[in-house]
Amino acid sequence: MSQPSEERRLILRAVRQFVEREVIPVASAMEHRGEYPHALAGEMARMGLFGLNVPEQFGGSEVDYVTFARIFTELSRGWLGLAGIIGTHGVLCDVLVRFGTEDQKRRFLPGLASGERRGGICLSESNAGTDLQNISTTASRDGSTYRVNGSKMWITNARYGNTFLLLAKTDASAKPAHRGMSAFVIEKGAPGLIVSRDIDKLGYKTVETCELHFENFPVPAENLIGGVEGQGFVQAMTGLEAERLNVAARGLGVAQAAFEEAIRYARQRVTFGKPIAQHQLIQAKLAEMATKIEASRLLIESAAEKKDRGERCDLEAGMAKLFATETAAEVSFEAMRILGGNGYSKDFPVERYYRDAPLVVIGGGTNELQKLIIARRLLEKYQ
Ligand SMILES: Cc1cc2nc3c(=O)[nH]c(=O)nc-3n(C[C@H](O)[C@H](O)[C@H](O)COP(=O)(O)OP(=O)(O)OC[C@H]3O[C@@H](n4cnc5c(N)ncnc54)[C@H](O)[C@@H]3O)c2cc1C
Fold first, then answer.
1. Are 221 and 280 in contact (CB under 8 A)?
2. Which of 1, 22, 108, 175 is deepest in the core (most CB within 10 A)?
3. pLDDT tens, 108-117?
4. 76 near 44, Cβ under 8 Å?
C-alpha cells in the first residue's frame, strides 16, 4: 500500500478528527430529524474538500486517488450522506478538468473548489438509469443559446446545489444514440428549471435527491462542455469511472463503521455468563466481517494506485466497487444481528448503516452493471 506524503497525511488526519469530533456525535440524530448539515458542509468547504480533484491553479486542493478514496472512506465512516454532498460534485469537477474549455475551467472550477458553487450530475431519468442512451431530455440550439426540455430523476444535491452537469440529446436522430448526446454545465437562476420533488428514501437521507423539470430552460452555448456536440456520453462515462472508486470507498466507510460498533458491543454484551465476543459463532462473524473489510480496502487502494499511475483501471475499479459495496450491505446486516434487538433500534447507529448501505450497491452504476463491465474486460483480456 502506498504511503501518502506528509501533506496528504495532514489532510487525512484533519478529516478523521472532523469526523470523530463533529460528525459522529450528531449524525444519527440529525439524520432522524431530516436536518440538512449546512454547518458540516461549510466546514468541509473550509477544509478544501469540495476541491479534492481540482488543480491548485483553479483554487483546488488536488490530491492523488489513494488519498481521495481514503477521504471518502473517513467521511462515510461518520455519515454516508456527507460524502454524498461532495460525491457527484466531484464528478462534475472531474469532467470539467478533463474536457472543459479553458474558459469553462476558469469560470466554474474556482467556485466549485471553494464550495461556493455546489455541484451534481443530471444524467438519470425516470425511464433511463443503467441504460442512459435511452434518455429523452433534449437541448436544441436557438442562436447563442440551447433550450432544454425534459425531466431528470434522482438528482443528488439538486435542491442545495446550483451548478450541474446535464446530459441531453442535441441530435435525437443519431445512431447509435450516444453520438447525439451532449453535456452542458447548467446553473440555476433563469426561469424554466423547477426542482419539482424531493424523493423520500430508505436511507442516504438528508443529502437531497430530487426530480427536476426543464421547460425551455436556456443554457448559453459557451456552457457546452468542450465546445463540441456529441461528446457528452463519453465525457459523463469517464467521470463515472472516478465515481466508481469514490462509491467503493464510501461502502468501505459504512462497513468499517458497522464493524467498529459490532465489536465494541460484542465485548460488552453478556449472555450465558460471558461477553458475546467469547461465543465462537460471534467470533466467526467478526472474523468474516473484518476479512471482507480488509479485502475491500486492498481492492480500492490497488485500483486507486493504478489510476494514480495513469493506467487503465476500469476492471479493478469495477471489482472494488462490486466487492466493497456488497461488503457494506453484508457487514451492516451482520452488525445488526450482533447487536440483537438494539441493532434494530434507532438508539444505535447500526440501523442507519443498514439503511445507507443499499445506496452504494445501486448508485455509481448498479452492481449488476459492474459485473457486466468486469466480464467484458475479462473477455478482452483472456482472448
Ligand atoms: C439515492 C440515489 C441517488 C442518485 N443520485 C443520482 C444523481 O445524482 N444523478 C443521476 O444522474 N442519477 C442518480 N441516481 C440514479 C442511479 O444512478 C440509478 O438509479 C442507477 O443507475 C440505476 O438506474 P435505474 O434506477 O433506472 O434502474 P434500471 O436501470 O431500471 O435497473 C433496474 C434493475 O435492472 C438491472 N439491469 C439493468 N440493465 C441490466 C442489464 N443489461 N443486465 C443485467 N441487469 C440489468 C439493474 O442492475 C437493476 O437491478 C441516484 C439513485 C439513487 C437511488
1. no
2. 108
3. 999 999 999 9
4. no
CATH 2.40.110.10 applies to domain 120-232: yes
294-333 pLDDT tens trace: 999 999 999 999 999 999 999 999 999 999 999 999 999 9
- Cβ(123) to ligand 1 under 6 A? yes
CA separation (Å) from 146 to 101, 151, 327?
Answer: 18, 16, 44
- Give the 3-state secondary structure of residue 59: coil
Q: In CATH, what number does 234-381 get? A: 1.20.140.10
How many angstroms separate the alpha carbon of residue 236 from the centre of ligand 1?
A: 15
Measured distance CA(76)–CA(363) in Å, rounded:
15
Higher pLDDT, 154 or 2: 154
Does ligand 1 come within 6 angstroms of the Cβ of 151?
A: no
- Cβ(121) – ligand 1 distance below 6 Å: yes
Positive or negative, the Cα torsion across 181, 183, 187, 190?
negative
Residue whose Cα lies nearest atom 24 of ligand 1: it is 129
Please determine, for residue 3, whether its predicted confidence score (pLDDT) is greater than 70: no
* 218, containing H or E segment: strand 209-220
Pull the grid cell for residue 289. 466481517
The torsion angles phi and psi of 220, rounded to 5 degrees, stand at -60, 140
Catalytic residues: 243
Q: 120-232 and 234-381: same fold?
A: no
Q: Is the C-beta atom of 135 inside 6 A of ligand 1?
A: no
Mean pLDDT of 85-92: 97
**Least confident among 142-146, 180-184, 239-243, 307-311:** 239-243
Ligand 1 centroid–CA 357 distance in Å is: 15
Peptide bond into 176 cis (omega under 30): yes
- Give the residue extent of every domain in the chain: 6-117, 120-232, 234-381
Under CATH, what is the fold of the domain 6-117?
A: Butyryl-Coa Dehydrogenase, subunit A; domain 1 (1.10.540)
Q: Whole-structure pTM over 0.90, yes or no?
A: yes
Residue nearest to atom 23 of ligand 1 (CA): 129
Residue 88 Cβ inside 6 Å of ligand 1? The answer reads: yes
Pocket test for ligand 1, best of 124, 136, 370 (most atoms within 8 A of CB): 124
